[in-house]
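Translate structure to sequence.
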C-alpha cells in the first residue's frame, strides 16, 4: 500500500512538472509572438463574416493589443476567392488572415493560398471542426435546423426524420434557399448517393418554393408566406421566437453544421500579428464575442443561450468541396427551375 502511494505521489509530481514545462514553453512562445506582432503593427482580415461580428472581434483584439492596427475586407466567399487569386497573380500580398466558408477554405488550401498554423488554442476543438494539419480552425458554426410557422403548423405534424418531409401534407408548403448545394452535398453523403438522390428527387416533387436568401426565407416564414423552412440556421428562428414572431424550430438528426474556418494566409505580410489574431479569435475570449451575441462556437462548453446541445451534430464534410460544381448543378436541376 505504501509503495502504491509513493508511486502515485511520484506520478502526480511528474504531471505537475510536465505541466509547468508546457506552460513555460507556451508563455515564451507567446511572448515571442507578441514581440514580433508589435514590430509589424498591423493585421489585415479578409472575411465573409457579418460586419458586426468581424468588427467586434477586431475591436476586442485591438483593445488587448493596442499596438496592432486592424483592417477588414468584408465580402462574399466568391469575391474574396477572386481577390486572392488576383493578388497571387500580381504578386501583391495584402491579407494576413481569412475566414470564409468551409468549401472555399478547402479550395484556398488546395491552391496554396493558406498556410498551416497549429494554434495552441485549437487543441480544445473536436475533430471535424479543425484541420488535422493545422490549415484552419472553425471560427464559428451555423447549426442547420428546420423552422416552421407556429400559427400554420401543428406540432404533432412536424417531421421527425428527413423522410417525413415527403408526406403529402407538406406539398407546396415548404421553402428552400436557392443556394443550398452544400446542404445537398452533405445530405447525399449522409444518406448514401443512391438513397440520397431518391430522397432529393421525391422532395423536389413536393413543389418546394425557392427564394434567394436563407434569412429572407425565415422572415417570410414568420410572415406566413411559408409553413416550413427545410434548411434554417438555428440562431435565426431562435432569435425571432424570442422577439415574439410565430416561428419555432426542430432539429432533425444528424443536424448538419456549416463551418466558417479561420486561417493564416500564405505569404502573410504580418505573420506574427496573424497568428496572434487567430489565437485570440479561437480562444475563450474571442469565442465569447460570438456566443454573447447568440452565435454558435465549436468550442466545448462555450454555447449561446438556448443552444440545442442535445442534437447529434455532423460537421460539414469539407472534402465534398472537390465536387461542389457538380453538386450545384444537380441541386439547381432539381429545385431551381
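Result:
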Amino acid at each position: 500500500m505504501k509503495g502504491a502511494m509513493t508511486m502515485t505521489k511520484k506520478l502526480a509530481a511528474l504531471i505537475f512538472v510536465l505541466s509547468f514545462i508546457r506552460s513555460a514553453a507556451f508563455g515564451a512562445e507567446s511572448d515571442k509572438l507578441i514581440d514580433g506582432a508589435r514590430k509589424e503593427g498591423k493585421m489585415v482580415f479578409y472575411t465573409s463574416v457579418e460586419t458586426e461580428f468581424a468588427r467586434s472581434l477586431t475591436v476586442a483584439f485591438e483593445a488587448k493589443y493596442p499596438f496592432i492596427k486592424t483592417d477588414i475586407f468584408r465580402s462574399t466567399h466568391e469575391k474574396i476567392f477572386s481577390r486572392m487569386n488576383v493578388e497571387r497573380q500580381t504578386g501583391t500580398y495584402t491579407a494576413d488572415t481569412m475566414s470564409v466558408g468551409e468549401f472555399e477554405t478547402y479550395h484556398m488550401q488546395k491552391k496554396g493560398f493558406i498556410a498551416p498554423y497549429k494554434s495552441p488554442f485549437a487543441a480544445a476543438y473536436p475533430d471535424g471542426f479543425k484541420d488535422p494539419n493545422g490549415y484552419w480552425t472553425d471560427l464559428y458554426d451555423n447549426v442547420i435546423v428546420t423552422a416552421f410557422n407556429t400559427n400554420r403548423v401543428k406540432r404533432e405534424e412536424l417531421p421527425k426524420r428527413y423522410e417525413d418531409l415527403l408526406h403529402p401534407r407538406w406539398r407546396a408548403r415548404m421553402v428552400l434557399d436557392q443556394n443550398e448545394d452544400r446542404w445537398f452535398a452533405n445530405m447525399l453523403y449522409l444518406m448514401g448517393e443512391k438513397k440520397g438522390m431518391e430522397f432529393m428527387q421525391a422532395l423536389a416533387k413536393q413543389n418546394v418554393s425557392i427564394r434567394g436568401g436563407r434569412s429572407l426565407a425565415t422572415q417570410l416564414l414568420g410572415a406566413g408566406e411559408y409553413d416550413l423552412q427545410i434548411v434554417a440556421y438555428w440562431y435565426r428562428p431562435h432569435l425571432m421566437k424570442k422577439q415574439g414572431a410565430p416561428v419555432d424550430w426542430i432539429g432533425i438528426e444528424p443536424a448538419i453544421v456549416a463551418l466558417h474556418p479561420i486561417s493564416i494566409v500564405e505569404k502573410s505580410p504580418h505573420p506574427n500579428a496573424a497568428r496572434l489574431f487567430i489565437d485570440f479569435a479561437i480562444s475563450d475570449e474571442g469565442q465569447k464575442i460570438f456566443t454573447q451575441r447568440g452565435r454558435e462556437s465549436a468550442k466545448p462548453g462555450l454555447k449561446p443561450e438556448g443552444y440545442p446541445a442535445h442534437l447529434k451534430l455532423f460537421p460539414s464534410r469539407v472534402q465534398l468541396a472537390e465536387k461542389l460544381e457538380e453538386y450545384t448543378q444537380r441541386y439547381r436541376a432539381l429545385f431551381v427551375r
